[in-house]
Structures are given as C-alpha cells and as structure tokens.
Amino acid sequence: ETLVLATHNPGKVREIGELLAPYGMSVVSAGELGLPEPEETGTTFVANAELKALAAATASGKPALADDSGFCVAALDGDPGIYSARWAGPSKDFSVAMELVHRKMAESGSDDDRAWFTCALTLAWPDGHCESVEGFVHGTAVWPPRGDKGFGYDPMFVPDGDTKTFGEGDADWKHSVSHRADAFAQLVARCFDGGPA
Ligand code: ITT
C-alpha cells in the first residue's frame, strides 16, 4: 500500500525516503498529491506532527506519515524549537535563521553551546487512529556554519562524539545518529514489526 509523506520540505522527503527504502513501501508526497498544508497551531512537536499526519490521511484516504522537527538551543531555552522553519523568514533562507541563532546566543551572554534536534513522527490512518514517537540527537551549536550537505540548520550542528557538522557528513552518517533516524527506529518497532499497524 502507498504511504503519503505529509511534508512539503524536500530535505525531509529525501531523508524519510532513505529511511523507508529498506521497507519497500511506495511513497507519495503531500506536494505531489496537491494536499493543502495545515496551519501548525500545536504547541509541541508531537501535536504538530499529529495534525499534519491526520490532515493528510483524512484528505487522501491513505495512511500518512508526518514529521515535525526543529533545532533547539540550550542558551535560548530551546528556541527556535517548534518555530525552526519560521525563523528562516518568508525567503526560507536558513543562512538567515542560523545567523539569528548565532546572534541571539551571543546576546544571551551564556557560554552554554549545547543544542539538540528533535523529531516527532506521526503515522496516521484515515479512520483517525495515529501513533507518534519522538527522537533526539544531542550536540553543540558551532559558528561559523560548515558544509553544504543536509538542510536547514545542519551546517551549525555537531553531534556529541563527532567533529563534523551534519552539513559536512554524508547521509548514511547522519542517519546513524540523527533525531529523525532515532524517531524512525521507534516507529518501526511500534508499527512495522508486528505492532498495531
Ligand atoms: P513540513 O511542515 O511541510 O514538514 P517544515 O520545514 O515547515 O515542513 P517543520 O515545521 O517541522 O517543517 O520545521 C522544521 C524545521 O527544522 C525545518 O524547516 C528545518 O529547518 C529544521 N530541521 C528539522 N530537521 C532538521 C534536520 O535534520 N537538519 C537540519 N534542520 C532541520
């Protein structure tokens, strides 16, 4: 059966496609189906992932997988967090968003450089049932940004235990540690391996 990827973010479509590849499922993106983008009115990653997945499952009549994720900085009390996409402004230019994170970190006066990514994944069915998980990767925020792989805030994040930013490493390496891969593994354990799918 076809799974709808309830995201309009090309970076997420690519990464979730790579994570799903071993499961031999056919996928179609919300963009390809022309599904509307619901307003993200939730106050948590999970709430936003659920509303996106349920909207896509209901509109398409097929199971849908949504990802709500973000970059969280300790010195900024977890911001940009659920507002990570919006910090880039209407141009969706993440060099602008990274500059803003860097400037606010400097203004905070804190020398705490810890940061993490969070990824909530929700799998929803047209009957309104859904399953949600949340994954994390902890590390540090670095400046200046390095590398042009990945997307979003990847060039300014170094995961704990490594020296490369997510912008400098290849996809396999990112999937070996990332928040999205962590969440995906939990979803697989719950829903694809004999769970209540
Ligand atoms: P959809 O709602 O259509 O899925 P979006 O980009 O608006 O796309 P979010 O509201 O979840 O999605 O925003 C998450 C933002 O957090 C995203 O735009 C990235 O900038 C950032 N982000 C999430 N995962 C990331 C990753 O693996 N690497 C770098 N940045 C990431």
TrEMBL record:
Cofactor note: Binds 1 Mg(2+) ion per subunit.
Presence of keyword ATP-binding: no
Keyword entries, A-Z: Hydrolase, Magnesium, Metal-binding, Nucleotide metabolism, Nucleotide-binding
Chain sites annotated for binding Mg(2+): 39, 68
Single GO MF descriptor: ITP diphosphatase activity
InterPro entries cross-referenced by the UniProt entry: dITP/XTP_pyrophosphatase, ITPase-like_fam, RdgB/HAM1
This enzyme's EC code(s): 3.6.1.66
Binding of substrate, residues: 7-12, 69, 151-154, 174, 179-180
The keyword Magnesium is assigned to this record: yes
Xref: SUPFAM superfamilies: ITPase-like (SSF52972)
Reactions it catalyzes: XTP + H2O = XMP + diphosphate + H(+); dITP + H2O = dIMP + diphosphate + H(+); ITP + H2O = IMP + diphosphate + H(+)
CDD domains referenced in this protein's UniProt entry, alphabetically: HAM1 (cd00515)
Any one biological process term the GO annotation gives: purine nucleoside triphosphate catabolic process
The protein's role, per its UniProt record: Pyrophosphatase that catalyzes the hydrolysis of nucleoside triphosphates to their monophosphate derivatives, with a high preference for the non-canonical purine nucleotides XTP (xanthosine triphosphate), dITP (deoxyinosine triphosphate) and ITP. Seems to function as a house-cleaning enzyme that removes non-canonical purine nucleotides from the nucleotide pool, thus preventing their incorporation into DNA/RNA and avoiding chromosomal lesions.
Subunit and interaction comment: Homodimer.
Family to which this protein belongs: Belongs to the HAM1 NTPase family.
Protein name: dITP/XTP pyrophosphatase
Species assigned in the record: Thalassobaculum litoreum DSM 18839
